[in-house]
Each structure stands twice: as C-alpha cells, then as structure tokens.
Specification:
Blueprint (H helix, E strand, L loop, with lengths): L19 H20 L1 H7 L13 H15 L3 H34 L3 H28 L9 H30 L1 H21 L12 H7 L2 H15 L2 H7 L5 H6 L5 E2 L2 E2 L8 H24 L4 H27 L7 H27 L6 H25 L12 H24 L11
Antiparallel strand pairs: 1-2
C-alpha cells in the first residue's frame, strides 16, 4: 500500500481506534526485550563478563551500578534524536521501524560477544535504538485519538502501560532463570527474539495507524513560537521535580538487586534469584492500574476533582516512603541479620503505586499539553528527567566510592540520603500544583 493511502487523521468516531492491538502487541514484546536485557545487566557484569582472551573480567558492584545507570541515562537521552527526526523529517512510523532495527542489531552484539567490547557496542546500539523510538511510540498512542474519542485516551494510556508491564513481568521472571541455567547467550538471545517480533508486529499495523505527517519547518516555527516555548517551559517546571523520582525508581535494577543478595530469598517456598524480584514491579502495576482507574480515582473524585498534578504530588510523597523501607531493610542487614525478601515486596508495592500516580499520569498529561506539531519532541523532553535521575545516581556512586573500594555513604545511610532528597522535592512541588495553568491540544479529526 502506498504512503498516500495511509490514514493521516483520526476518524470521526467515539470508539477505540483500530490500531490498538498492534500498538499493545508491539509494546509488550519491546518491553519484554528491554526489561529482560536490563534486569540481568548488573548480574552479567559482576558474574559473567569476559576479557578479550575469554577469561573472566568481572566488574565490582560499585562499577556495575555506575555503568548500569549511565546506560539507562543514555537510553533516555537519545529520545531527542528520534523526536527531531520524527517531527521534522520522517514521521513516527518510519522513525520507529528504523530505530527498532538498530535495537535488534545491538541485542545481536550482546548475544554473540560477552566481552567488554561486545557489551559496549551492544549497549550503545540498544540505548540508541530503544531510546530514539520511545518518544515516537508514546506520541503515536495519542495520535490515534480525535476530539470525539479523547475521553478514551486516559484508559488507552492505562492499557498501554499495562502492556509494558505485561511484557516486563514475564521477561524479569524468565530471563534471570535463563542466565542462571544456560548462560548469557541464551539469556540475551531471548530478548533479541522478542525485539524482532515487536518490530514485525508494529509493521503489520501500518495500515491501521494514524500517520501524522512530519512538521518540517512548521515544527521549528511552532517550537520557537511564544506558544511552543511556553508549553516547553511549563512542562519543564514539572519535569525538574521528577528527577529524584526516577533516580530512586531505577535503582530497583541495581541497589535492590545487590541488597537482595544479602537477604533471605526463600519466600513462599521458592528460592528467588536476586534479579527476579524486579518482577514484582510490573506485576503490581498490572493490578494497580485498574484499581486506581476504576476504584481509587472515582472515589476521590466524589470528594473533590482530582487533577493530574494532584496525582503526581501524591506519588512524589509516596516515593519517599519507598526508600524508607529500603533503609530499614539495610539497617537490619548492617546488624548482621538476614531479613526476609518479603520486605522488598512491600517496597515494590509502594514503588508501583508511586509509578501509577507519577509516570502514567505525566505521560498522558505531557501529550495533551504539547502543541500538535511538537508531540514527539515533548515526549522526548518527558524522558529527560529519567536520564538526569540515572546520571545523578551514576555520578553519585562514582563520587562516594573510596580508593579502598568502600563507600562514603555506607549501608543504610545511602538510602536515607535519597529519602531526604525526595521529601524536600515533594514539599517544593506543592506550589506548582496550586499555580500551574493547563492548556490541552488534541489532533484534528478527518
């Protein structure tokens, strides 16, 4: 089918768009791939990494945490590349397919080369491919809706987030087992296969998607117009307060995995691998999305109108509680005890609740507050706090490491440091909630 026959505007309909199955299938497989690869990175670097001659060349825990967070930071910096190529030149579909293929090539490097060189090349390509297509995928969700069915957008973003966590649930359970039993080649090969399937699923939906044409010079004009700059500036005020949230959130793949090594992991009759505990996050997310959407939000709305910024504010305060639990766990470990891994279950439940309130809400809010030609670019800016949060964590872990390998923030003091930062952030966000003025932009219908 020629590009001229693609749908270029949402239909006049109050129903869910026909592109829904393709978007959700693609996202589930792509997130299976990313989180499956990501959850074993620290374990791979500290237990399996090889030298050029095939001998073990393992990293220390501090070095592995540092490089893990720098990789995540890179994943959330490259969205600017994808957003600019998408909004100015190629549109969302071509940009997504191209960078999905780049992601596949990066995973192939990880499958066939377990040396530091293979790790470096693989992670550079995965960070570029996965990151560059992220803002396009997120904006493409909102593009499927017009004014007649925009009331269904919030639910679809919930389903979209559900599919993310559906894919990551299975990968974080399966991939650590594959690494433990069969080694890194099979463990990285499974996410690679999933990424290939994700790309194919997205390509199959090409005739169902709404293909918003790239803005070209109009994007630049809108971006630097008074309205465009105001939209970016207003959203950036919110995003500044999300940096500590993401700094804490992404430590479930580093600090919490390393902490789990020192805990009693026999829980409900099963000996859990440290990297498998991450499965709790997407599992809780899938349960909490409908709970918040159909129970908690409607109940609160009966008392007062719950705005997006109210939800984000509540999530920030809850995030401080997350690392409070982690600090109390670590305090017991520091005393020589082996607390049950069930305490990390509680921490994951609180973290997942914070994620629903902060991340899902801000994702949809960012799309609606972005001018029409700037949707992908604004979604790239939305990912900037994740990059900054992980950069902060990586730099901090490099700074606090003493020459003898010890830390200047040992044990529980590391977690209390983040609790203090998060509490200050949550309090300072309250005036933003009270003063922020919203302006909504939705794509025109055919």
């Amino acid at each position: 089918m020629s590009e001229k026959k693609y749908l270029t505007a949402p239909a006049l309909s109050d129903k869910m768009p026909g592109s829904v199955p393709y978007i959700l299938t693609n996202e589930a497989f792509e997130r299976f791939s990313f989180y499956g690869m990501r959850c074993i990175l620290v374990v791979f670097m500290t237990e399996y990494l090889l030298g050029a001659s095939g001998e073990l060349a393992l990293m220390s825990e501090a070095a592995a945490k540092k490089y893990h967070h720098f990789f995540i930071a890179a994943v959330y910096f490259t969205p600017f590349i994808g957003a600019l190529l998408c909004d100015i030149f190629f549109g969302k579909f071509k940009t997504i397919v191209f960078f999905a293929l780049v992601n596949c090539v990066g995973l192939i490097f990880l499958v066939f080369d377990q040396t530091r060189l293979g790790l470096l090349l693989g992670l550079i390509l995965v960070a570029t491919g996965s990151g560059a297509m992220k803002p396009c995928v997120s904006a493409n969700v909102g593009d499927q809706f017009g004014r007649n069915n925009q009331d269904k957008m919030q639910k679809f973003y919930g389903w979209f987030y559900f599919s993310i966590n559906f894919g990551s649930t299975f990968s974080t359970l399966l991939v650590p087992e594959l690494l433990n039993k069969y080694g890194p080649r099979i463990a990285f090969g499974t996410p690679c296969a999933a990424m290939i399937l994700a790309t194919f699923a997205y390509w199959l939906g090409r005739c169902k998607f709404i293909h918003i044409r790239p803005g070209g010079f109009r994007f630049v004009k809108e971006c630097f117009s008074g309205e465009g700059l105001r939209a970016i500036g207003k959203l950036c005020i919110i995003y500044v307060f999300l940096v500590p949230f993401w700094s804490i959130f992404d430590q479930m793949d580093s600090s919490w995995i390393l902490q789990a090594n020192d805990m009693n992991r026999n829980w409900f009759g099963h000996e859990w691998l440290p990297a498998q505990i991450v499965t709790l996050n997407p599992f809780f997310i899938m349960a909490l999305i409908p709970t918040f959407e159909y129970v908690i939000y409607p109940l609160v709305n009966k008392v007062f109108r719950l705005r997006a910024l109210h939800k984000i504010s509540a999530g920030l305060f809850m995030t401080a509680l997350v690392f409070t639990v982690s600090a109390l766990i670590q305090k017991r470990i520091d005393l020589g005890e082996m607390p049950s891994i069930g305490w990390q279950v509680l921490a994951h439940l609180i973290l997942a609740s914070s994620e629903v309130l902060v991340s899902i809400t801000c994702l949809k809010f960012s799309y609606t507050q972005a001018p029409k030609k700037m949707k992908s670019f604004i979604m790239a800016v939305f990912f900037l706090p994740i990059m900054l949060g992980n950069t902060f964590t990586g730099v901090l872990n490099a700074y606090i490491q003493n020459e003898d390998g010890t830390s200047s923030l040992p044990g529980a003091s590391y977690y209390w440091f983040f609790v203090k930062i998060m509490l200050v952030t949550a309090v300072l966000f309250i005036p933003v909630v009270l003063l922020y003025k919203e302006k909504t932009y939705i794509q025109d219908e055919a």
